[in-house]
Amino acid sequence: MSRRSLGAFLAAIITISTASVIVLMSAVPKRDGLDMVRLWAYQIQNIEADDAVDALIDSKYDLLVIEPTRSSRELADFDMHSVVDRLHRSTGTNVASKIVIAYVDIGQAEDWRWYWEDNWTAPTEASRGSPDFLIALDPDGWSGNYPVAFWDQHWKEIILYSEGSSIQQIIDDGFDGIYMDWIGGFNYKPVVNAAESEGLDAQQEMIDFITEIREYCQKQNPDFILIAQNALDICENHSEYFDIIDGVAQEHVLFDGAADAEWGDSAGGDMRVPESDTEWYVEMLDEYLNRGKVVFTVDYALREENIAEAYSFAQEHGYIEFVSHISLSQLPAFIQPDYSVLPIYATCTYPREDETC
In 209-233, which positions are buried (b, 16+ CB within 10 angstroms) versus exposed (e)? Predict the structure, then answer.
């Protein structure tokens, strides 16, 4: 083959390869960002139940935070990838493709997850568990949840770095991001004491952990989203925190519920939080808004007047609100408020594609 022929051949190969890359890249749809979200929903139980996925698909929520179901030991074979794909193929109120976010507890071990081994021992009020990164009982009374030494390398392998880690499963299943719970472990006294006993600062360790999570995820998906739940004060004296999260969520700004309350249990909502707590949330959330972060809020309320109050309060303050039962085990059949982008639903339940009002 002559040099001229060889050059032409190589140029053709490069052209074909480049075109193939462009085709492959264009086959991956660009998701709308958090700034497009007007309505969101939060369900972290019973995704595997009959019709649960269909209800999520039919809904008009722009963003869904859901349980990555196959991370449960009993549901390890659940086809989460297909669920995420189906959700992506459905529309929201303000997005062409729903944004699908996975719930992940980065500050507590949960005894029903894939990683919990039979020889592990849960902590007690008097002692740490085994492995010894299991530090204490959940202070809010959630059974099977145990605050951890989140800086421990064994824990980081479970959540992040091992081949089948919780977050790697989430990435593999096609989620658009994660919703990180129990960041507040950084200021839970037993955790703080454990960190100090090792010469560590728990606040800095949590910020470092989230930074590692962001770097790990965005190497695989540069658009991967990180939403932080609660622990608003972790930003104090650490302005770099605003650079490592994309949005923040705060529970029970107005109304809370009792831990472990089942769906429909009257204890699952309508517990008004102290006014001083609400004032603190507003003060802190203003700081996140001023930093350009999307703010999500979730209240637990069952009475219509409390539901309406929670939505109105959020709209007034620039938050994207969701109201449900504290069990978060299905979508609520609540009347939705006027969210500016929606008509007033006088008789409708949650927004659905087939609703007529």
Answer: bbeebbebbeeeeeebbbbbbbbbe
Please state whether the peptide bond connecting residue 123 to the residue before it is cis, i.e. omega within 30 degrees of 0: no
Q: Which residues pair with 271 in a beta bridge?
A: 256
The burial of 187, by beta-carbon neighbours within 10 Å (0-12 exposed, 13-18 middle, 19 or more buried), is given as middle
Instruction: Compute CA distances 332 → 162, 263, 319, 326, 327, whole Å.
Output: 36, 10, 19, 11, 11
The C-alpha atoms of residue 241 and residue 10 are separated, in whole angstroms, by 48
CA atoms of 267 and 150, how far apart (whole Å): 31
Q: Indicate the SS3 state at residue 45.
A: coil
Alpha helices in the chain (DSSP H): 3-26, 52-58, 80-88, 153-156, 166-172, 189-197, 202-220, 275-290, 304-317
Q: Could you give the CA distance from residue 213 to residue 159 in angstroms, rounded to a whole number?
A: 9
Amino acid identity of residue 284, one-letter, is M
Decide: pTM greater than 0.85. Answer: yes
How far apart, in whole angstroms, are the C-alpha atoms of residue 355 and residue 347? 10
Tokens 């086809």 belong to residue: 79
Residue of 83, 57, 59 whose CA lies nearest to 70:
83
The answer to whether residues 66 and 48 touch, using CB atoms and an 8 Å cutoff, is no
Q: How far apart are CA 92 and CA 61, in angstroms?
A: 5
Asked if residue 225 lies in contact with residue 259, where contact means CB atoms within 8 angstroms, the answer is: no
Task: Provide the b/e sequence for 78-106 (b: ≥16 CB within 10 Å).
Answer: bebeebbeebbebebbbbebbbbbbbbbb
Q: Could you read off the pLDDT of 6-48 as tens digits, one per residue?
A: 444 434 434 434 444 333 333 445 567 999 999 999 999 999 9
pLDDT (tens digit, 9 = 90+) per residue, 257-275?
999 999 999 999 999 999 9
